Amino acid sequence: MSRVGDIAAGRLSEEQYARNFGDVEPPLERKHALVEASRCYFCHDAPCLEACPTGIDIPGFIRKIATDNVKGSAITILEENIMGGACARVCPTEILCEQACVRTAQEGKPVNIGALQRYATDWLFERGLQPFARQAPTGRRVAVVGGGPAGLACAHRLSMLGHTVTVFEARAKGGGLNEYGVAAYKVPHDFAQREVAFILSLGGIDLRCGQALGREVTLASLRRDHDAVFLGTGLAGVNALKLEGEALKGVEDAVAYIERLRQAGDKAKLPVGRRVIVIGGGNTAIDIAVQTKRLGAEDVTMVYRRGPENMGATAHEQDFAQTNGVKIKHWARPAKLIGENGALKAVEFERTGAEQGRFMLEADMLFKAIGQIFVPAPYGGDNKDVLQLKNGRIAVNADRQTSLSKVWAGGDCIEGPDLTVSAVQDGKLAAHSIDRFLKQS
Ligand SMILES: Cc1cc2nc3c(=O)[nH]c(=O)nc-3n(C[C@H](O)[C@H](O)[C@H](O)COP(=O)(O)OP(=O)(O)OC[C@H]3O[C@@H](n4cnc5c(N)ncnc54)[C@H](O)[C@@H]3O)c2cc1C
Ligand code: SF4
């Protein structure tokens, strides 16, 4: 009989932790980058470009790699996507540019666009170059709330256009979920902070950490003291299972645990269950499942209420989880959390598919990964004006303008795909719209 509540730190050796949380995909060396770049047809109507949410000139940057103009290649990428380095690591390219690549249809093997993008942007980062310059100062001041991909992309573009930007960030560090959420093995070696430093090195951006909207500042004060405001606060809430026993020891919110994992300097100090259950079928579920396995959990099972084709996680991510030893069970949902002496002992599941009935899985830890939600509370305080919501997120028009005058929004706090690359595009579009507004007013 196994012990109830078997949650322990230090399950692995130092070498195993280092291997498990090192780079999941090693970078391309020059000779391999040249070979990969030579596979590109430089298509005239490049479908890969159409599929990139930030519209990077993909054949253009690959051609520059092929001619050994790596700096020029990096600039082509960063002109459209200032977080091209992060996106090269975290983008689900298998459903974006690489899915659209003509080589996928031809031979099932796309040009490795993500790896080439990383090759070029890493080259620039390693040399500490900031290829962009600010336009002449306009004297206009913009407040950006949230220092994640949306906020930083907006701030960088506004600063390039000559405006002065203050970023109000609630947490201790900038970078948003690149720093606190994305799987550790996708962005090792403090990449998120290096990218934040690169963005700020342009100048004209004052990143103020520990400054939260609704705490240190209000929307009313930001609107009063600035010419425009951009909101990029992401999603602060998580869905609950709504089952008795959610307070049992071992029942955790996946996003909060991942945040602790990302900030843990020494992964050996992070306690993890021997048997882990993950509820959910999206990226967060995959990430917590794989990372707990890589922390040394013996048995990790993801349970999802519908079939594989309904999962938010791509087929590539599902394969990746299974390759890492994660089991995936479909068509079941948790019905009862069973505890002993205040600790989780087992979970009873109800089948949701054609098969009926219930089954039980023993577990020391259960992670809830059933979706994040937008929390509108910090936006209160403006008595007269109302920030309109749509489907539970901030409503915006095509220019990312909200219902409030002088206020724009983007990233996860508005409707759309919850991806780093989409957040960057929102920030960029909003910055250009703000710039047009400031020039007219
Ligand atoms: C676990 C996990 C893994 C993910 N993995 C991937 C992946 O592999 N690939 C991918 O493309 N996408 C991934 N995503 C999604 C991606 O991280 C987000 O879509 C992206 O970070 C959204 O950017 P954002 O700037 O809108 O929000 P965030 O990155 O959440 O940044 C919002 C920022 O606002 C700050 N903030 C919040 N409230 C306030 C306030 N009141 N005042 C001031 N500041 C505030 C936060 O501290 C944060 O820094 C993942 C998400 C999660 C949760
Ligand atoms: S679709 Fe593929 S082959 Fe064509 S330009 Fe894009 S990366 Fe190159």
What does this structure look like?
The chain is α/β, with parallel strands linked by helices and 441 residues long. Helix content is 35%, strand content 18%. It is built from 17 helices and 19 strands. It has helices at 14-20, 30-37, 47-51, 58-66, 70-80, 84-90, 97-100, 102-107, 113-126, 149-160, 177-180, 191-200, 219-225, 254-263, 283-294, 315-323, 420-440; strands at residues 7-8, 141-145, 164-169, 205-209, 228-231, 237-238, 251-253, 272-273, 275-279, 299-303, 327-329, 332-340, 343-351, 358-362, 365-368, 372-373, 389-390, 393-394, 407-409. The strands form six sheets. It has a five-stranded parallel beta sheet, with helices on both faces. Strands 7-15-9-10-11 form a five-stranded parallel beta sheet. The longest helix is centred in the last third of the chain and has 21 residues, at 420-440. The chain is globular and about 65 Å long. It starts with 6 loop residues before the first strand and ends with a helix. Iron/sulfur cluster binds next to α3, α4 and α8.
Q: What are the defining features of this structure?
A:
alpha/beta, binds iron/sulfur cluster, five-stranded parallel β-sheet, binds flavin-adenine dinucleotide, 441 residues
